[in-house]
Design brief:
The protein is of the alpha+beta class. It has helices at residues 2-22, 25-37, 122-130, 146-162, 212-220, 223-226, and strands at 41-42, 46-49, 56-63, 69-74, 80-83, 87-90, 103-106, 109-113, 135-139, 165-169, 186-188, 194-197, 233-234, 243-244. The strands form four sheets. It has a six-stranded mixed beta sheet, with helices on one face. Strands 1, 2, 3 and 4 form a four-stranded antiparallel beta sheet that branches. Strand 9, helix 4 (146-162) and strand 10 form a beta-alpha-beta unit.
């Protein structure tokens, strides 16, 4: 009983520390959920106000099974569009872009994190994979125009490009809401096959990830060794070496 009480106190302190990092009830709730369920939790995204600069970010928090905040990803690519006569929408009027990639080691593997519009940029996914990410996770809320055409397509593209798993979670659609999300949370394997998905309503998507498939697919089709580094290269600013051929 003493040990259990001590562990509970330690976990509570961990959750409190995670919450204090943002001063956020949402972070405290996510931390508690991860701890109580004993899972690694990638907690969608929430607004984050930087206490030093006052800037606002769209931020995804990652927690370990003890409820400790182990990583946060600030959305890197902001959704700014201006289609004459149709729509103008600029996230940059409110939000600041993140300035680093997010790759984190967890009990379930090494994760690379992106948010929504980040999914459209293959370079971010490639850089995360180059840093060893086995699973790319994207919380996102595509709309009912781009969702049917691009949501699954982009997930499968990121998966097959990098020969890793892609998990994408969307809000469920809410009739009458001002913004209608596409929904269809989905899990994709390294060969771009759909492992599990759902429709636009509220649902839990469950599947098992065979992590050995990452090595199998990369061995069977060794893209990394066949890239033409003499013709093209992607420079990962966060690493000293360039990604040959990406």
């Amino acid at each position: 009983e003493v040990s259990a009480a001590s562990a509970a106190a330690t976990s509570a302190e961990s959750a409190a520390a995670s919450s204090k990092a943002f001063g956020s009830e949402s972070v405290a709730m996510l931390s508690s959920a991860a701890r109580e369920c004993g899972v690694v939790l990638v907690g969608g995204s929430i607004p984050e106000k930087c206490p030093d600069t006052g800037l606002l970010y769209n931020t995804c928090c990652v927690f370990d099974a003890e409820g400790t905040l182990i990583a946060r990803h600030r959305k890197t690519h902001l959704f700014d569009i201006d289609i004459p006569g149709q729509i103008t929408f600029k996230e940059s009027d409110t939000l600041a872009p993140g300035d680093e990639l997010t790759v984190v080691d967890t009990a379930v593997g090494r994760l690379g994190i992106g948010i929504c519009f980040d999914l459209r940029f293959p370079e971010l996914a490639m850089a995360c994979a180059n840093r060893g990410a086995q699973i790319l996770v994207y919380p996102g809320a595509f709309n009912t125009v781009t969702g049917p055409l691009h949501w699954e397509l982009l997930q499968r593209a990121r998966a097959v490009d990098n020969q890793c798993f892609v998990l994408a979670c969307s809000p469920a659609r809410m009739p009458g809401a001002s913004y209608q999300a596409w929904g269809h949370s989905t899990a994709v394997d390294p060969f771009a096959e759909i492992l599990a998905t759902c429709n636009e309503g509220g649902a839990t998507v469950h599947c098992e990830l065979d992590m050995g498939q990452v090595a199998v697919r990369r061995r069977n089709m060794p893209l990394e060794q066949q890239r033409r580094g003499d013709l093209y290269v992607l420079h990962d600013i966060g690493r000293s070496d360039e990604i040959g051929g990406l």
